[in-house]
Amino acid sequence: MTNTAPQRRAHSRTKRPPTIIDVADHAGVSRGTVSRVLQGGHKVSPASQEAVHAAIRKLGYVVNRAARSLVTQRAGSVAFLLSEPQERFFEDPNFTTLLRGCTTALGEHDIPLVLITAGTEAERRRVTPFLSTHHVDGVLLISSHRGNPMIDHLRQANLPFVCCGKPLGERGAMSYVAADDREGAMAMVRCLLESGRQRIATIAGPQDTPGGLERLAGYREMLAEHGIAYDKRLVQIGDYSRASGEAAMHRLLATAPNVDAVFVASDLMADGALTAIERAGLRVPDDIAVGGFDDSPVATAARPPLTTIRQPWDRISEMMVRQLLAQIDGEGPATVILPIELVVRESA
Amino acid sequence: MTNTAPQRRAHSRTKRPPTIIDVADHAGVSRGTVSRVLQGGHKVSPASQEAVHAAIRKLGYVVNRAARSLVTQRAGSVAFLLSEPQERFFEDPNFTTLLRGCTTALGEHDIPLVLITAGTEAERRRVTPFLSTHHVDGVLLISSHRGNPMIDHLRQANLPFVCCGKPLGERGAMSYVAADDREGAMAMVRCLLESGRQRIATIAGPQDTPGGLERLAGYREMLAEHGIAYDKRLVQIGDYSRASGEAAMHRLLATAPNVDAVFVASDLMADGALTAIERAGLRVPDDIAVGGFDDSPVATAARPPLTTIRQPWDRISEMMVRQLLAQIDGEGPATVILPIELVVRESA
DNA sequence: TGCAGGACTGTGCACGTTCACAGTAGAGAT
DNA sequence: ATCTCTACTGTGAACGTGCACAGTCCTGCA
């Protein structure tokens, strides 16, 4: 060792947390060595590593992220960005599952999750500069509607991002993670067919969302597979809300009699449909079988409990985080489609 | 002006965002002046202010938070800390409302919200150093159980924090914001009494949570006000889950006949109670009136829809943020109790 | 004309890291 | 004994900002 003189500045500091210099002094090494240990300990002798670790423990040293960010030009955090009106998400149990999963997955990498809402135009104006100046290293983008203005911003800012669900109307390579909506719809309709139902209607989701489109497509595909002609009177569109489900079911009962099953693109709408069916004096599943989608809490709360499709939200969040971190590390974008699961309860 | 020579360093930078120096050069002023404009523009001539603002707009300058943090010793962000098993919260619609409200309220101050979970011991170990080294300026603490280990950490780290709901078993000054649980319970029981009910039971929440305690206390107080003796056979304890509500109602029906109303400390438990009542062949509200608490989505989904107590979650989050920012600015802790609202539906 | 004082402005330093570079010691080969 | 190579270590310079201090200019008063 050539230099063992204290590198600490002279004036006494009042009560600041220990810095890398304190650790270096304590361990009898230089800042550089401590820094290298912090980065993983390559090119550092075992003795030095041990000394540094001991000093870190003793002093309770924790790296100062601001200082690190300043030099590395990395934020060390990731944004969870809601780019649509918030109600849409915060009322959705899937959303909270997703948020929880992402927080946990990021936490394992010691990366803080920054929650950002950009539902309104005003919020978007406030958020854009924050994102485009690399205050986060990447974005988990939660949005389903066509024409998301945030995607352009993110691309322009050259900020890695991963979408939850397939973004509609976008072209160019883009990372996203999604459940297999089409296969989910097909599984449900198959289930209804196999239980002997003849006239299967559907209440689809908004046709500017991937879920809305894919689930309707799956419905059509499975009917076609069974040689059943597509009857557009059996198709109603809702907006995923309970009220819209009730209204849609009401319309179905009025305009398309003899319906003996309905595949509904969300549990919430399915619950609304149950109400409409009950009001019409019909019974579920005796008169009409009802299939939902999401396996949200309302599925078990509903009377009767809903047969539904479970999406692997825990795996979705895990894969989103994995993809994002890979992109931050320089990898190219990728698409991940995850399998779904049919959950049979009493409604079908 | 004494010095108009460019302060920009000589070597060309590849593609970094503009710095305060770029703005200064562009506006023909010094770093100090730009900094002062950024802080609010005191002691800066109108002409300079205008020039700086123009330069900021033209260059698309955004302050580098890492650099600012480094010198101010402030993070510029706030943590939303879940200090209990996550399921508890993520399944709770109130929680998401709270999270949304806090995000919005903080966003108005341009402060990012960092979501942190510390439900398990392992997570807590990972999170503690992060918190105690001022990587956030304050904490919105979400927890209800007695003996929260995080509170000690936060106090020791001298980090401002505001609790959601009254922390139990803690002493010393502490900020918290809560709804008036006791008054809520009293309002509900008053409502039941006024509709002519005679034997009013209750399914209370866990007695190590403030909601559990206060709502039971309100129940007792209102009965006492009406000269009704407290009958402990009419009291069952649940854990806020649907299943526990169903079980508790089951016990009530078995051991305390003639019950004609029940005040349940959460909507979820109330929904479970509805199931138990239905199974017993009784009708709501004809045979037994049911009052819930929370006005969560299940309240409207339940059959019949629940009469319940709405907590002002939007105001709670708003006040939590306000209190926290005040504390960060040096003010002392404070307690805020907000009024509740009775929502009458069909179950009572 | 001189001077005090207010209004505004510029400059040096510190904040705590990381990184590139320049060492240094020791082992082994010649 | 000298040289080369490996393995490790120390050092200076940046990163972009805020703050304290030291100006400078200008107005108004004696």
Automatic annotation (TrEMBL), chains A, B:
Q: Which GO terms describe its molecular function?
A: DNA-binding transcription factor activity; transcription cis-regulatory region binding
Give start and end of each HTH lacI-type domain: 18-72
Q: Does the keyword Zinc-finger apply?
A: no
Keyword hit for DNA-binding: yes
Q: Which domain of life is it from?
A: Bacteria
Note one Pfam family from the annotation.
Peripla_BP_3
Q: List UniProt keywords, sorted A-Z.
A: DNA-binding, Transcription, Transcription regulation
Recorded protein name is: LacI family transcriptional regulator
